[in-house]
Backbone:
């Protein structure tokens, strides 16, 4: 046990030294949390915190290091395939003071995170048998594995099934946000105050909810998000429909905001006729019948599925339902008027969103749409008098921020005119972007650009999400439809 933990520790300590102190959320100080207690006196409260947070762990008691079990990142979605664990290292600052280093270890099916040189063969006796040229494979017949002896123990503890992954995808970073979360969680029990940082943990509890969780795992913190979120504020997200990443960004944003005390309402560019179905689903138990009632609406079966009815959107609704089920203050409304077009449609979108915002001015509204509607500047290249929804909202509300989508190249499910320009062709298409890393972030500029955007929200490499109706009615627990399903 001890040797396994310390092997992982030595592999990650170099990453920890780099830290990320200068890139934290607004509520996370850019310095370490120091406990005014000897390490041995503080450590039992650390154990208690992870136990109460339902994060099972194993511990090397001799060195005050613990490592949590693998856990799927926020939400029950099968589309992301991200898992993580925490390594918690107790450190002595002085004989009477202590601190924690918490390393967040993330793995996924994506081998882009693999360490450079991972594919090299380091010696004839290092692996567990088999041909080194087949390093990414193993034989069920003779039990030969292409990984090293040191990694074998951890491999057996990995999740199995659709989201199974191997050692190639490992990545570890120091998580200062989690360090402060633990600090704030255990300091009230230690009856201490530290550097005038509030120890209270607040969440946005839904009206009428009996309880709300003191700890919810929401994935890696989105840089710059909380600076834009405030009661009464509206953030418009102008997206490219049909990706897996934007719905995940929305669900992760909501999770992080409500667990920090900000009630959130999400506006989705779905037909207003779906309002009752979506509300009923969010208040349901998420069973098979609940899914069928949600998905029987004609919208999900459109002959031209443009990405708004994707599997990723269905899974996002499930993630928001899970947050509500925990007692967190999450609400959703829809505002599209598909029977209208042009300026009349834009006006109708505006009035629906405006009514929602004015009815609940104490909430933060996150409104998602195609990136024409979210512009806050008047005019389009083909119509100089066009007044987008964002332009009209900016004129009638005090706090409106428009963010354009930024992403690394990849794919998206897009509907576009065919070569003859006679009909829409919907399917997986290439999306060109710019690589700014793999971490979600929000970046605001000093002033709006000519389209009226005040900044960007970045979602990393994008990958297409197919229509939910082709994926077992969007139910994450249902078997996926075969590739040759009718309608493809």
Residues:
């Amino acid at each position: 046990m001890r040797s396994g933990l310390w092997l992982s520790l030595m592999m990650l300590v170099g990453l920890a030294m780099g830290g990320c102190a200068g890139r934290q959320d607004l509520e996370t100080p850019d310095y370490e949390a120091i406990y005014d207690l000897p390490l041995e006196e503080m450590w039992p409260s650390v154990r208690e915190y992870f136990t109460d947070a339902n994060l099972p762990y194993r511990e090397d008691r001799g060195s005050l290091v613990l490592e949590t079990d693998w856990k799927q990142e926020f939400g029950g979605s099968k589309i992301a395939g991200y898992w993580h664990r925490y390594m918690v290292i107790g450190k002595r600052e002085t004989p009477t003071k202590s601190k924690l280093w918490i390393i967040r270890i993330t793995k996924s099916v994506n081998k882009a995170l693999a360490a450079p040189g991972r594919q090299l063969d380091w010696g004839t006796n290092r692996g567990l048998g088999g041909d080194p040229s087949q390093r990414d494979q193993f034989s069920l017949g003779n039990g030969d594995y292409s990984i090293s002896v040191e990694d074998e123990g951890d491999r057996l503890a990995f999740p199995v099934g659709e989201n199974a992954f191997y050692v190639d995808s490992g990545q570890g970073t120091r998580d200062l946000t989690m360090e402060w979360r633990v600090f704030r969680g255990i300091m009230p029990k230690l009856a201490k105050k530290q550097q005038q940082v509030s120890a209270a943990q607040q969440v946005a509890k839904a009206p009428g909810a009996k309880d709300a969780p003191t700890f919810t795992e929401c994935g890696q913190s989105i840089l710059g998000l909380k600076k834009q979120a405030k009661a009464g504020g509206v953030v418009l997200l102008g997206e490219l429909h049909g990706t897996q990443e934007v719905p995940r960004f929305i669900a992760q944003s909501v999770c992080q905001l409500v667990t920090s005390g900000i009630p959130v309402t999400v506006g989705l560019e779905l037909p207003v006729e779906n309002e009752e179905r979506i509300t009923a689903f969010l208040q349901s138990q998420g069973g098979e019948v609940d899914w069928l009632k949600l998905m029987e609406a004609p919208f999900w079966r459109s002959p031209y599925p443009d990405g708004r009815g994707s599997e990723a959107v269905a899974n996002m609704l499930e993630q928001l339902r899970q947050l509500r089920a925990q007692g967190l203050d999450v609400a959703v409304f829809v505002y599209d008027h598909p029977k209208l077009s042009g300026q009349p449609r834009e006006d109708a979108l505006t009035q629906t969103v405006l009514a929602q915002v004015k009815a609940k001015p104490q909430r933060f509204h996150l409104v998602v749409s195609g990136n024409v509607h979210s512009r806050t500047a008047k005019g389009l290249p083909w119509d100089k008098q066009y007044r987008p929804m964002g332009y009209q909202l900016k004129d009638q509300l005090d706090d409106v921020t428009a963010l354009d989508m930024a992403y690394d190249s990849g794919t998206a499910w897009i509907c576009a005119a065919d070569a003859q320009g006679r009909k829409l062709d919907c399917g997986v298409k290439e999306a060109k972007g710019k690589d700014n890393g793999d971490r979600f972030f929000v970046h605001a500029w000093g002033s709006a650009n000519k389209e009226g955007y005040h900044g960007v929200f970045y979602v990393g490499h994008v990958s297409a999400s197919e229509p939910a109706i082709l994926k077992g009615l969007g139910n994450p627990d249902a078997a996926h439809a075969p590739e040759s399903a009718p309608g493809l």
